[in-house]
Amino acid sequence: MTFCWFATFRGAAEAGAAEIDALAGFLARTPGLAQALIHTPATTSDPYLNDGPSPALALQLYFPEIAALEAALAAGGHLQALAGAACPPSLAGAEVTQQAMLARAFPVPDPAFRTPAGALPCTYLVAYEGAAEDLNVWLAHYIDHHPPIMARFPGIRQIEIYTRIDWCGFVPFARVEHMQRNKVVFDSPEALTAALNSPVRHEMRADFKRFPAFSGGNTHFPMLTRAVG
């Protein structure tokens, strides 16, 4: 079982390379951390959606145990510094939201990355921010039907779906309660754009129209992804 903490920074300038390097070093020292992902804005083209500019920064921190996640987020935990000295200066004053979730990984035909040297993979971060009429029915449909279609995207390397949990944490960022998140990962923004303009994207849209009733909309943001740890 894997737990994932999300922190999303909006309304600020994008952090510079030196700031991201410093942030990566800080995150790597988090006790109990399995892996951190640092997402920065990318640009792609989706024939169905345009949710505006991507967030200035998004973090995903993975922990193998809920106790390790909660210790890092505790009042005296390592991640408290993200609200102070460890926050990139460019992001000072950003609107920051957070949520901890259960991570569910799904198989893809070829998970081996072929990202060009010196470049970063590209992640499509998706959030369903509202509420389902029946969350159990919603999740059952989504988990049963959507990943098999996602896995047919050309060049897809990873699929993960995130579902809600109760969690303790005292990093002073605003909490959100998105009912679900997911991501798909590709070698590059160009590879993600090609997938989004493939026939599989139309299959995805057709399945979206069959989703159980929900409100609150959803967002889709392309991000370059740096792995730490």
TrEMBL record:
What InterPro entries does this protein map onto? Dimeric_a/b-barrel
Q: What SUPFAM superfamilies does the database record attribute to this sequence?
A: Dimeric alpha+beta barrel
What protein name is recorded for this chain?
A: Ethyl tert-butyl ether degradation EthD
